[in-house]
Structure prediction request, 572 residues.
Amino acid sequence: MKNKIILSLLMSFMLSITFSIPVFAQETGSLPVERGNVAAEEPQSENAALAQEQNNDATATENQGENPILPKNDQTVAPEETWPTEFADVKPGEWYYDAIKFATEKRICKGVDANNFSPNSSLTRAMLVTMMYRYAGSPAVEGSVNFPDINTGEYYYKALIWATNNKIITGFPDGTFKPNTEIIRQDVATILSRFCITKGIAINGWLDLFDFNDAWGVLPYSQKSMQWAYSYGIMNGNGSGYIEPTGNATRAECAALIHRFNGIDLTKVPTSAPSLFNGNHVVHYDAMCEYLNTMTNMYPNIIKVSSAGKSEEGRDIKLVKLGTGNRYIYMQGNLHAREYISLNYLLEILDTYAHAYTTNTAFDGYNVRDLLSKFTIVMIPCANPDGQNIAIYGYNAAGNPSAVKGMYNPSGSHTDWKSNSQGVDLNRNFNCKWSTGSVKRPSNANYGGPRAESAVETRNIVNVLRSYPFETALDCHTAGDLIYYSDNACSSAYNAKAAPLASKLAAASNYKMQKTSVGAGAANYVRHTFGIPGFTVELYPTVRYPLNCSIFTSAVWNKAKDIPLITMDYLQ
Prediction:
């Protein structure tokens, strides 16, 4: 996880740098290598890489149907011109056979001569521009290009006018186009994505490029395009943990990428899209931010992310809205630092429910789109990011390590840390029967603070709770497969309202229902301030730290995955 976060920070730094973006392609023959302004390591075997992709990707077939954004008439040469579609060097059974047949039949590209296609020859920037121009239907063009290395009589001249007019390509910093420079894989992804943009298609990706060992090679200008291409199955890894963004693309490979691109409805999130989130590992605050950014790109109509304020150490307390309805339920996780598996639970809810909503598919028998059209789940997935940082990485990760080390901690272990970075137990800091608690000084746990709402994290939560007309609040913790639905100071009217819903949740999750004593916890505060059901949901079977996130799916998700759906269904 640390390495992943470091990679993320490096990529974020790179994204702050302004690049002049070169891009793309020609039509016959193999031409000299010229890297231009893209410094890259030579790949091992690009043909083997895409061959492995083809074997791993059953979607690259003509049975997928046509991409709805494309013109139907893409005949770009006179009918009397000979355009072979069978070649001596393209045999049936080769991984690229169907793709080359598609590309030549659609007159996107042709062979190097009447008998040969030269599938393993390199493809240049001019070549790919020409292929994409033909793929677009060879529309009429106006104007000219101002690249000093381009002559008006070149076969790709009209294609280049089309590509520059539509902002699909730009030149190099020296003002040239470099038509004979070989194209690399991340540039192919970039031109395909820019082509989609000209058709009004949003470029969203959801799969994590950091799954690949060479993710660092994806340059800032192509990062979003590569993530998009990977997410939709246009470009995959080589089967050995590499996606080879800087590897040269051959004529066969580009035909295959365009073939895949053609067979996908890019206006929709595929119902078969794999889950982007895997909760069976520790998710640190920084990784959470990466996931949230990816989710908002993938599901912009259903997930909105903003800030509920800052933590004591200045981290954003992320506020997430899931849904479009005008009725609201509240959820929060990771209020206690060591209980970070509750963050995993909320991220899994976002991923799973947003996918079901977007694809209009049921989840566990619930009509998710209908429920999230009536309700909005407002959540703070990580309410205590500073404390979580200590619980995962230790005292030295705190903003003030010496102060944290000097706080009372009878266990002596950072993995037992519940409080924020100031030693305040946030679930004892709300203005409901508040007291300092049994511990009278900053501590790893159980110190209620010098006064109610002394912690900025607590005040952030209170501000959110007062900003929406919530009907129920679910505070997610991790101690014992329980639902605390009431306390010893609640009225009979409250219990009559809360108990039936709690009973449904307990039956579905196999959690026990239980009352607790009144105190300065978040759920207590909700019950006694707003009079709505305020539940503390204990998601994990034991009270033992550090948590074992590898059992998240079996121990947490499979039991609690329907809790928000049951809540909304009950309230509607």
